[in-house]
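Running this now, will post back.
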Amino acid sequence: MPISDIQYTRERLPNGLDLVLAPLPKSPTITAIIIFKTGSRHEPDKYLGISHFLEHMVFKGNKVYRTPHDVAAKIEGLGGSFNAFTGKEYTGFHVKVGAEFSKAALEWLGALVTSPLIPAEETEMERNVILEEINMYNDTPMMQIEDIYEGLVFQGKTLGRNVIGTKKSLSRINGRELKDYFRKNYFSGNAVLVLAGDLEKIAGKRKKVIVDKYFNFPSPKGEEAGTSSKVMGGKQDTAKIVYKKTDQTHLILGAKTFSYFDRRRYPLAILSTIVGGGMSSWAFTEIREKRGLAYYVHGSSQLHSDSGSFYVGAGLNNNKLEQAIGEIKKLFARAREGLVSPQELKKAKDQAIGGMALSRETSSDIAFILASEIVARSKVVPFSEEVKIIKSVTARELRGIAEEFFAPEKLRLAMIGPWKKSDEDKFVRLLK
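Update: finished.
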């Protein structure tokens, strides 16, 4: 049975909030997610990491739930779950509960994002927590390598910023800056609120209650931060090595591509599936299965509002690193120089479509799809239309993307391992 398109309504409410309702009458749960159009690339240079810092502080108490314990206990006491995330361009908060508790969940989420107290004592405590989070990333090369790669491939652009900030920038952030940043960026006109699930108790005329009672944001203060896509002057590096005494080298090799507004995102997704999407992909087969050079290896595409990238990442045997880089290069060359077979293309399309279908099973799945698509592109492409687009992708389109973006001179290499900066030239030569 084919997966039906998501049914939803969307309305810009009087206070500017973009409200999306997705009724799922048979769902036992309801998910509410609110995404603000602010992230690490919108931050003042002096206060890098402030979006992520504020994400933490929102859970430290508000005008309804005064303490961190009160905030957590309310939803956990209902058997629900909640979390938040900060990205390059967006910050989101979400909650999921049984449908009978939908009103309580909306009241909780509204209080969370409209009236954070940001108490001074909690600010200092949470700064230490985030510093430990930075230490965790620095001690986990498999996680850290993505930040290093993005700093390289988006060098000189705000997209290259580390979401979590630096120890130096965090030391500058205090309660006053957090409150000021909140008032500038966390307001109804800068947000999308999605409710998905059994909405019987909150749909229809109760929209006004949702907005007026639960999502009554303070007026924004000053101008919200803008997105910068400028490229700084100077030489653009080809490689970046971070020295760490490790038993394996963590590596990402990739190239800058295009934004998520580009229609080629569909053939890029198919190419990503073929090159690195799963245990039957080229990367897994050639790097791990045939040669035993890595435990983990995968390919991925990351697209943003004005740029993006595709890469292959892996944890590799130090003693066979040059061989491994050569094999990854061959994957890019294979995509540039030949056409994938009809069988390979069909398999990748079926894999992509099947994955999309599986990602639409629950209220939280639906809420995240609607929120992320609307906040990014201001519209949702129906699933049935996306299936048609994916099925229409040709092998020549895949090759065209590879030819344009995966040429050796466009590749960028990020590594963490027992290598020195003086080794960069040697590895750059391997890319040619």
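The longest helix spans residues 120-138. More later if anyone needs it.
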